[in-house]
Design brief:
- The protein has about 400 residues and is an all-alpha fold.
- It has 2 domains: about 5-200, Growth Hormone, Chain: A (Up-down Bundle), CATH 1.20.1250; about 210-385, MFS general substrate transporter like domains (Growth Hormone, Chain: A, Up-down Bundle).
- Helix content is about 85%, strand content about 0%.
- The protein has 14 helices and no strands.
- The chain has helices spanning about 5-30, 35-40, 45-75, 75-90, 100-130, 135-160, 165-190, 195-200, 210-245, 250-270, 270-300, 305-315, 320-360, 365-385.
- α3 (about 45-75) packs parallel to α5.
- The chain is globular, with a radius of gyration of 20 Å.
- The two termini are about 30 Å apart.
Length: about 400
């Protein structure tokens, strides 16, 4: 299944995998910006829309564990290409629905493709990271972030001119073209084998035993702590700035953009950071930085201080998820990636409602400090697992 891949082919493989990460972020963001229009079209109330949107999450979580097995059987590259086609086709379905029930059903399909491609291309990226012997995992996640920012920006521009049906059908066409072009490279090049396994010290991930599974779950918890913060900031940062710091709606919307941009910059510089600090220090410093930033973001008395807090949080959280997924994949192959991704996705789902309940019980600023608590927890877990993170 795995083979020795020449250096120039590794570079082409890296480009192809990066393109799939960017495509995933681009397509998903394009769908998200059309949710208000599709809500109106289906006539769904806020609560029924919320239930329909759970289709994405349910589809993703169900498929992630299954995809780990499919990757082991058919190879990460093939599964990535098939999921890329399914993701591109299924994004055109939501605007064709006229009830919340139908929307929930098609989002189950979309979520399945989204969950599947996330496990497949992360598994392909883990193989490549080990073959390159360079910690380049953050660069793939930076491509996902950039794809999301482009998809959201483009979606905002065309929203006033194109119907959701035409816009999302356009994403299908773009997605299929990109999948065919990048997919040809993936299907032609065999997954690389890491250098150490050529010298007889086979370290290719086997089926996880109990101890390995425990370590993978531990890295999954780091992914959960990180993704909890991402989900919470995506859904609550604007409301916090508007309601608690009396920012205008326009200024409030800048909050999440600052966080997302800082996260992208953090990931673009992540490889250099990992080479300099090593994984353990990147996890502990990142988690501690994010905790400090979020305390500032949640409790600051002024808009500018809160925005600075969001930037610091984004820089701190940026590389925790990529490192956690890469370590889980190195330990247990595609199943390890599936377990860590499922935990991470669970954190992203858990964040927004958990913040909502805590905001009702206490206050929104107090609720947002839970992001700082979990970021600090990720730092502690990173320190506790230093014997498995290399450096």
């Amino acid at each position: 299944m795995h083979s020795v891949v020449p250096g120039n082919e590794l570079t082409r493989l890296r480009v192809a995998i990066t393109v799939f990460f960017a495509l995933d972020g681009f397509v998903f963001a394009g769908w998200v910006v059309r949710i208000p229009a599709i809500k109106e079209q289906t006539g769904a109330s806020a609560s029924t829309l919320g239930l329909a949107l759970l289709g994405v999450s349910a589809g993703a979580v169900i498929t992630m564990m299954l995809t780990g097995r499919l990757c082991r059987r058919y190879g990460n590259h093939r599964v990535t290409v098939v999921c890329g086609i399914l993701l591109s086709l299924s994004v055109a379905l939501p605007p064709l629905t006229h009830s919340a029930l139908a929307l929930g059903a098609v989002l189950l399909v979309f979520g399945s493709a989204y969950g599947g491609i996330n496990v497949a291309f992360n598994s392909a990226a883990v193989d490549l990271v080990r073959a390159l012997r360079r910690p380049v995992m953050p660069s793939f996640h930076a491509a996902f972030s950039l794809g999301g920012m482009i998809g959201a920006g483009l979606g905002g521009l065309v929203a006033g001119h194109l119907s959701p049906t035409r816009h999302l059908l356009g994403l299908t066409v773009i997605g299929l073209v990109v999948t065919v072009v990048a997919g040809r490279t993936l299907l032609r090049i065999e997954p690389p084998v890491p250098p150490e396994s050529l010298s007889g010290k086979a370290s290719t991930a086997r089926r996880p035993d109990t101890r390995t599974r425990g370590l993978v779950v531990t890295f999954g918890l780091i992914a959960l702590c990180t993704a909890y913060g991402e989900g919470a900031l995506a859904d609550w940062s604007a409301l916090h700035l508007e309601q608690d710091l009396h920012a205008s709606p326009g200024a409030a919307a800048v909050g999440y953009s600052c966080f997302a941009l800082a996260m992208t910059i953090g990931r673009l510089t992540g490889t250099r950071l990992l080479e300099r600090l090593g994984r353990t220090r990147t996890l502990t410093i990142g988690g501690t930085t994010a905790a400090a930033g979020m305390l500032l973001g949640a409790l600051a008395p002024s808009l500018w201080a809160a925005l600075l807090g969001f930037v610091v949080t984004g820089l701190g959280l940026a590389n925790l998820f990529p490192v956690a997924v890469e370590r889980a994949g190195t330990l247990a192959g595609p199943e390890g990636v599936a377990i860590a991704s499922t935990f991470g996705y669970g954190g992203m789902l858990l964040g927004p409602p958990a913040i909502g309940f805590m905001a009702d019980w206490f206050s929104l600023p107090a609720a947002l400090t839970s992001v700082a608590v979990l970021a600090a927890t990720a730092a502690v877990i990173g320190l506790a697992t230093r014997h498995t993170t290399g450096r």
